[in-house]
Amino acid sequence: MPRPPSQRLVHPNVSQGCQGGCATCSDYNGCLSCKPRLFFVLERIGMKQIGVCLSSCPSGYYGTRYPDINKCTKCKADCDTCFNKNFCTKCKSGFYLHLGKCLDSCPEGLEANNHTMECVSIVHCEASEWSPWSPCTKKGKTCGFKRGTETRVREIIQHPSAKGNLCPPTSETRKCTVQRKKCQKGERGKKGRERKRKKLNKEESKDAIPDNKGLEPSRETPEQRENKDKQQQKKRKLQDKPQKSVSVSTVH
Question: Which residue numbers delimit the Spondin-like TSP1 domain (predicted)?
Fold first, then answer.
């Protein structure tokens, strides 16, 4: 005799009161189908897989919506996160991302960026235009010489990547020739100031030594010359007196 509907047994693999967004479920396999707009994904727990319903797919899965089910599918083995089965957005360790693919080495013309783990274009160094040549100088001076050097510089506006061309020199020096000109006061270099100091010291030492050769007449004052003449006259008179006395005694 058949049992009345109220006494019919529910299939042991299907539960009536599902939790967590499941539309249908079983005690052993978890969710079997999901409520609208939720994604169905199988999670491995030990040796068995449990169905789970989520609002979005977890990392390492991509979601696909079908008329009867929204399903999460696992990304490829070398892919950590993906948009779909053919387009990876992040690769697992040891692989480099390029155009949605995970590669163990980058194609020719590209280089690996170990920070982002992506294949990127090679960047070469770029430098600005040269500046005008500096004034011709020698040991920091712009005067007192004929041959010196002049310099020009430029800036690095783009540093190279690991495989890019190295940067060129940022300064350049060449020899130059100018018309010699005397240094104005305050423009002398260190050696020029040293020579001037030695010259002044030499002149001071020369002035300090007395000149015993006599003074030039032009340096004597009129009073000095007059006194000198008077002294010479007195000296001559003293020399003449003895001669006269001798001559008188002879006459007697």
Answer: 125-180
Q: Which residues have CB under 8 Å from 30's CB, separation 6+?
A: 22, 50, 51, 52
Neighbours of 25 (CB within 10 A): 24
Buried-state track 183-215, b at ≥16 Cβ within 10 A, e below 16:
eeeeebbeeeeeeeeeeeeeeeeeeeeeeeeee
51 backbone dihedrals φ, ψ, rounded to 5°: -80, 135
How far is the C-alpha of 105 from the C-alpha of 89, rounded, in Å?
17
Separation of alpha carbons 106 and 97, rounded Å: 9
Measured in residues, the chain has a length of: 252
Q: What is the reported pTM? A: 0.49
pLDDT in tens, 6-31: 333 334 455 556 777 898 998 888 89
Q: Which residues contact 185 (CB under 8 A, 6 or more apart)?
A: none
